[in-house]
């Protein structure tokens, strides 16, 4: 069982529009609503794999009630923590040529009592769980040390913890020794304060995050693949993708793939890469089912191609 935590979930509203004209009335040709947030995505991917998961998330107001309904309709078990502020609505404008413009709202500020209830709900729901996956940014009101507290509490309870966040929240949590962190190239560069030009630069940065306390680092490098660095060594995994339809949620799908394959070692890396590749072949943030995966296309090697330039270097 894998518990996911999404401290700042959203009601994602996507409007399909022919094209965007600033200052004009834009008529949508289609619209959809989805439960949003990175931990929610991880739960959706785990459920799509037929594995058990519960999504812990603060929900408030009418948008929060809608998120709960949408999760229920998708068969995702949720442990909502009622909060006074309304859950944010994030807007995505999808133009016919494939360009996606997103407007993300800040979300409600959680009171001290709500923050504690969130931690307590995670504690209750993670009894006997294999993993807790903490994903995404922190809402206003949560100190950058909030994930660090969660890591410490999870370890006291004997549960392993995976963390996908960035900035000060990531740096603070590293000191508490999360079992795995999953930065993308940008987040990795920000964490070490250096640009990344090659796979070797990413490897050095991932090793540095391990030095700061992470048990393992699963670094996702977009089209270039993924790196896994743990106490026993480093591996590089990749899979070719002919047609990329949407990379939204590819990192979340990868983390889910890593955890459902046990959450450590080269086989889990291969599963992460297979899930990432499958996710980018699917539209929007659709999460892959087992039939969407092509494990035979994945290569995992301990020979990290350190001199290979990144397709998208981070300046
Ligand atoms: N263009 C691509 N071609 C092939 N594979 C891709 C491509 N983009 C992403 N992937 C796969 O998906 C994984 C995750 O992508 P990425 O590094 O962009 O994650 P991310 O930025 O954390 O995404 P998100 O946070 O939106 O879920 C990559 O490591 C890779 O395995
Ligand atoms: Mg990500």
Automatic annotation (TrEMBL):
NCBIfam families, sorted: 1-PFK, pfkB
Enzyme class: transferase
Regions that span the bilayer: none
Family, per entry: Belongs to the carbohydrate kinase PfkB family.
SUPFAM superfamilies found in the cross-reference section: Ribokinase-like
Organism per entry: Streptomyces tropicalis
EC code: 2.7.1.56
CDD domains, per the entry: FruK_PfkB_like
Domain Carbohydrate kinase PfkB: 16-291
Protein name: 1-phosphofructokinase
Gene3D superfamilies listed in its UniProt record: 3.40.1190.20
Superkingdom assignment: Bacteria
GO terms of molecular function: 1-phosphofructokinase activity
Keywords assigned: ATP-binding, Kinase, Nucleotide-binding, Transferase
């Amino acid at each position: 069982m894998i518990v996911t935590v999404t401290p700042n979930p959203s009601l994602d509203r996507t409007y399909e529009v022919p094209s965007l004209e600033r200052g004009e009335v834009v008529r949508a040709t289609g619209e959809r609503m989805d439960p949003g947030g990175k931990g929610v995505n991880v739960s959706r991917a785990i459920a799509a794999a037929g594995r058990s998961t519960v999504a812990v998330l603060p929900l408030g107001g009418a948008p929060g009630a809608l998120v709960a309904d949408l999760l229920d309709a998708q068969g995702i078990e949720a442990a909502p923590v009622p909060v006074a502020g309304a859950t944010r609505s994030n807007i995505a404008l999808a133009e016919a040529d494939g360009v996606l413009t997103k407007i993300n709202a800040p979300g409600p500020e959680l009171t001290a009592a709500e923050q504690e209830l969130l931690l307590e709900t995670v504690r209750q729901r993670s009894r006997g769980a294999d993993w807790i996956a903490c994903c995404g940014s922190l809402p206003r009101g949560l100190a950058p040390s909030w994930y660090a507290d969660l890591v410490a509490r999870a370890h006291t309870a004997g549960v392993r913890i995976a963390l996908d966040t960035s900035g000060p929240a990531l740096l603070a949590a590293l000191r508490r020794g999360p079992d795995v962190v999953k930065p993308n190239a940008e987040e990795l560069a920000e964490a070490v304060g250096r640009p990344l030009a090659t796979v070797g630069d990413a490897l050095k940065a991932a090793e540095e995050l391990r030095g700061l306390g992470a048990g393992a680092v699963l670094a996702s490098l977009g089209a270039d693949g993924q790196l896994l660095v743990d106490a026993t060594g480093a591996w590089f995994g990749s899979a070719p993708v002919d047609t990329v339809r949407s990379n939204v949620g590819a990192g979340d799908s990868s983390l889910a793939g890593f955890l459902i394959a046990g959450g450590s070692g080269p086989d889990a890396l291969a599963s992460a890469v297979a899930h990432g590749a499958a996710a980018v072949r699917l539209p929007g943030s659709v999460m892959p089912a087992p039939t969407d995966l092509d494990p035979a296309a994945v290569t995992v090697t301990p020979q990290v191609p350190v001199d290979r330039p990144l397709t998208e270097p981070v300046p």
